Amino acid sequence: MLRLPKFEVKNPATAEEAVAMILEIEGDARFIAGGTDLNPNMKHGLFAPERVIALNGIGELQGIRLDEDGSMRIGAMATLAEVTKHAELNQFYPALCQAAKLVSGPQLRNMGTLGGNVMLDTRCQWYNQTYFWRKSLGYCMKKDGSKCHVVEGGSKCVAAASNDTAPALMTLNAELEFVTTEGRARLPIADLWQADGIWNKKLPHTALLVAIHLPKPAANSHGAYGKLRDRGSVDFPLFGIAARLNFGSDGTIEDAALCAVALQARPWPLKKAASLLIGTHPGKDDFNDAVEKVANLAAKQCRPMPNIPGDHEYRHLMVPVFTRRTLHAAASDEGPVHHV
Q1: Mean pLDDT confidence for 138-148
Q2: What confidence category does residue 337 fall into, taking pLDDT thresholds of 50, 70 and 90?
Q3: Contact, 180 vs 207, CB < 8 A?
Q4: What is the pLDDT of residues 202-234, one digit of tens each?
Q5: Is residue 118 over pLDDT 90?
Q6: What angle do CA 36, 39, 44 make, to 5 degrees?
Q7: CATH 3.30.465.10 in the chain, residue ranges
Q8: Residue 235 and residue 163: Cα distance in Å, rounded?
């Protein structure tokens, strides 16, 4: 049986108090939201915090609201289940709701939070194992060792970002609100990431995500999320891709965005590929031709590595397939794309 290590639990009432609590001790301390990722990682010996700061008592981290300017604020502690059921989010930001709906299974979506999914630790088949397994292997660069088992002689960890909601939020130009030791800060989600699998955020783990802000959507904005996984639930993505298409009054695509995940340490925007869709007409030959070009370009840009379970060559073959399916789903509002 895998057991949790000993730790103390603190229950702050405010975000500022939570940040202060994480800095009070010299040893490791961690925030805990739904606990669906932190708890198993602690059981595997990947983290052994002396203090865990529970965030469920902080009021401003809760809830989802539509602001007067048409933007939306999602508290970091809003559960993934709440996101999937929210009427305005489903109407205006379908890719986000689809991505949240494809995270894990129903029980974990009831506990797991949107903020927790955004801040999810990177994953690797050589890292997300029990302590006994990792010790037998000789550990890895991300934890206790100095060797990368994915890239021979590699100098940087390539554990993969595996958070389904991150690419959807990237296509939506979301902003993240943090409380840090220096005060409050908001930054575009695109500026959060760095290409380091050991810690793929530019902010330290002592920074607390308070809310996710979504800008007012365009008048005719569509989206979809596609997820490759072995089973119909529970699994992390073998490949994920989010798409946003903004239509003009004449039905042409005026703006487009694509972002992939589960390839490397950060979500990967496919800006050049998305630009090929602008000016085309969904349902007509020019759009279909553009989708094929986008799918082929995505396959050239997205090169899965053997960093997560699943054959990386198969995953690469599925990149154009899921890019194509997700774009057609976004254009026709067909809903999420996933493969079992």
Answers
A1: 96
A2: confident
A3: yes
A4: 999 999 999 999 999 998 999 999 999 999 889
A5: yes
A6: 125
A7: 59-119+160-214
A8: 11
Span 1-58 CATH architecture: 2-Layer Sandwich (3.30)
Residue 259: name the closest of 198, 313, 206, 323 by CA. 323
Q: Is pTM beyond 0.85 here?
A: yes
How far apart are alpha carbons 260 and 328 in whole angstroms? 16
Q: Of all residues in the chain, what percent carry a pLDDT higher than 70? A: 99
Q: Alpha-carbon distance 256 to 66, whole Å?
A: 24
Which tokens is 266 given? 């950060």
Q: Where are the alpha helices (DSSP H) in 35-149?
A: 38-43, 80-85, 87-92, 94-101, 106-111, 114-118, 131-137
Which residues have a Cβ under 8 Å from the Cβ of 91 and sit 6 or more positions away? none
- State the CATH architecture for 59-119+160-214: 2-Layer Sandwich (3.30)
* Sheet with 268-269, edge to edge strand ranges: 268-269, 253-261, 239-247, 221-228, 337-339
What is the CATH number that goes with domain 221-339?
3.30.390.50
Q: pLDDT tens-digit profile of 145-187?
A: 999 999 999 999 999 999 999 999 999 999 999 999 999 999 9
Q: Going by C-beta distance under 8 Å and a sequence separation of 6 or more, which residues neighbour residue 179?
A: 15, 16, 18, 19, 185, 207, 208, 210
Position 1 scores a pLDDT of: 77
Cα–Cα distance, 19 to 182 (Å, whole number): 10
Determine which helix (DSSP H) or strand (DSSP E) holds 10, and give its type and residue range. Answer: strand 8-10
Beta carbons of 211 and 118 less than 8 angstroms apart: no
In sequence order, what are the residues at sequence separation of 6 or more whose Cβ sits closer than 8 angstroms to the Cβ of residue 185? 177, 178, 179, 207
Confidence (pLDDT) at 334: 73
Can you tell me the distance from the alpha carbon of 185 to that of 174, in angstroms, rounded to the nearest whole number? 14
Round to whole Å and give the CA distance between 104 and 86. Answer: 19
Identify residue 150 by its one-letter amino acid code: V
Q: Which amino acid is at 157?
A: C
Alpha-carbon separation of residue 170 from 192, 257, 292 (angstroms): 10, 9, 23
DSSP-based three-state secondary structure for 175: strand
